Amino acid sequence: MRTLHPFTLLAVAAALPALAWILPAPGGGLATLLVALSLTLTPGASPGPAGTGISRSWRPGLVVFRTALFTAAPFWLFLLLLHDVRTTVAIGLRISTMVASFVWLAAVLAPDRLVEATVARGWSVTAAYLFAATLSAVPVLKARARRIVEAQRCRGLSPRGSVANRFRALRALALPLVLSALHEVDERTLALESRGLVSGARRTSLAPPPDRVVERVVRWGLLLLCLAALVRRLA
Q1: Residue 208 DSSP symbol
Q2: pTM
Q3: Which pLDDT does position 231 carry in this prediction?
């Protein structure tokens, strides 16, 4: 999956939520969710015979799969508090498809390849960088939050216990995380300005990802499929 063109990955990640909302519920949402969850298992997936039958190459896919499930779970609880079971299932399947598609996209799409593909196509490199920075910010913030938690524990702050202790721990975690993120924004802005990343400037792609004919056909096919499903739904 990582070798596919970035535009193909974006097309798949956009087509699944679109079809989930276009196709009738709950069948359409269930089908697209199953496809999206199966995609989360694809990064580095290859069955292994040793131990539990899961090799190390399966672990990244299982982590992505678990992340998609845990991220979508709170939406189901929130929907169940507001709607009946039938409406919860219909909307929950669609939202879960959106969550799983984005989690999968963040796992397989390399931000640098997206920027290279956008530059090679002649599109706005600023918009591509913003989208790529959004994808790469999640693992960076998670790693930084883990280091902050370890540092606060060394100072005697426990994130467990009563509600008051948890709120104090959350404040001690959130403030350094936000301040460090803002400081990094300033550093990246200065670095990009020094490299001439301004709107309207034509840049040359050094290593554009190969865009095969088959992938272009797949992208147009997904677009036509979404349009056909929309026309049939409205007819």
Answers
A1: P
A2: 0.72
A3: 94
- Cβ neighbours of residue 88 under 8 Å, at least 6 residues apart? 76, 79, 80
pLDDT the model gives residue 44: 45
- For the chain, the average pLDDT equals 80
pLDDT digits (tens, 9 = 90+) for 72-104: 999 999 999 989 999 999 999 999 999 999 989
The dihedral of CA 33, 35, 40, 46: what is its sign? positive
DSSP structure class, residue 154: H
End-to-end CA distance of the chain: 36
Residues 6+ apart with CB under 8 A from 101: 12, 13, 14, 16, 17, 36, 39
Long-range contacts of 117-123, Cβ-Cβ distance < 8 Å, separation of 24 or more: 117/5, 117/6, 117/7, 117/205, 117/208, 117/209, 117/211, 118/6, 119/203, 119/204, 119/205, 119/208, 120/205, 120/208, 120/209, 122/202
- 104 with 39: CB under 8 angstroms? yes
| pLDDT classification of 150: cutoffs 50, 70, 90 | confident
Domain ranges of the chain: 1-109+213-235, 110-196
- Residue 217: which of 42, 19, 7, 2 has the closest Cα? 7
100: closest CA among 220, 229, 12? Answer: 12
